[in-house]
Amino acid sequence: MARINDHFLKLQAGYLFPEIGRRVAAYASEHPDQAGDIIRCGIGDVTEPLPQVAIEAMHKAVDDQAARETFHGYGPEQGYDWLREQIAKVSYAERGVQVEADEIYVSDGAKCDTGNILDIFGHDNVVAVPDPVYPVYVDTNVMNGNTGEARADGSYEGLLYLACTPENGFVPEPPGQHADLVYLCFPNNPTGAVASREQLERWVAYAKENEAILLYDGAYEAFITEPGIPSSIFAIPGARECAIEFRSFSKQGGFTGTRCGYIVIPKELHAKDAKGNDIPVSRLWSRRHTTKFNGASYIVQRGAAALFSPEGQAQTRALIEHYLGNAAILSEACRKAGLKVWGGKNAPYVWVQTPGGMGSWEFFDKMLHEAHVVITPGAGFGAHGEGFFRISAFNSRENALEVAHRIEKLLS
Ligand code: MLT
Q1: CA 200 to ligand 1 center in whole angstroms
Q2: For the whole prediction, is pTM greater than 0.85?
């Protein structure tokens, strides 16, 4: 009989967001009269229409597919040059960061990239993950056999956890022990924390000293409002030799349902093979990408490229300001209700301590049952997330105001 990958059996319950969806659906079916009143601030899924420039570019791209002269079949697996060049110019060069177009690999999203990257690394690496953390990093390491069994608190044997707490402002310092691969995400999902230049410099120094690779998730970089906060790990000298960056159009351009992201692997980045030889990481990723992926859709890439025009940049900025406006409203409501609040300033996520030491799933139920608001329990992001919850600011202004009102009413 065929054998399964037994590592999957180590995974705890379902993936976090489907699990939340299941609980919400169960509540809604038991209380059909209240189902229509539920407001979802759980998964960070955008709600507002795509920027007009992207809509127009995609309409035109559909028309391109209607005529032999402009038709596009398989594209380059790494993405069309016209998109990669725009990314290199607008997202990096114009901000003083060196990234070449041929170091950019366009994909169907950062979630896939952060999981797929493990294909090119061995199983004996020491993997460090922040806690709490975007669950994809941990779960994909479990699937890949890079961990031991789950412990009672949901953490896994074999991973090096970097505690993110109010004391360190939810930005972990490099550990006193060796790691080979380190996941970092700033602005952070779920806590909304940002890392300063000095903090990132310490991480780059650690990576170089340990010959480690930083897997830097910058999916939320467009939400940075504070001057001086680096928008890319490659803004830090030396990072080109020790980091991979993941980026996405999902939150920045409203592409969660349209799907487009990219990964940056600098030419200087090397890792060792079993014989101790230095191998360029981009060589392996390129091999993997061209073997397992046929490129993001032409139509979608046209939509993404349109976001880089001056008009596209203005429309994207307006979208981000809308969500950051929601984040400010939600943060303020939680503060008024007497709760301790983090994030929400350079990120679309508001991270909040539960009232009265309540467990985070317990508070999830209270919010769902009594306020008809879906939040994400902090424990779903790791053991150190217990006692906290996350509110996503991805919503209409009307819903954000209503959620603020319900929070204040519930907790006053
Ligand atoms: C989240 O809610 O954490 C995100 O939507 C997950 C994702 O981007 O995949």
Answers
A1: 23
A2: yes
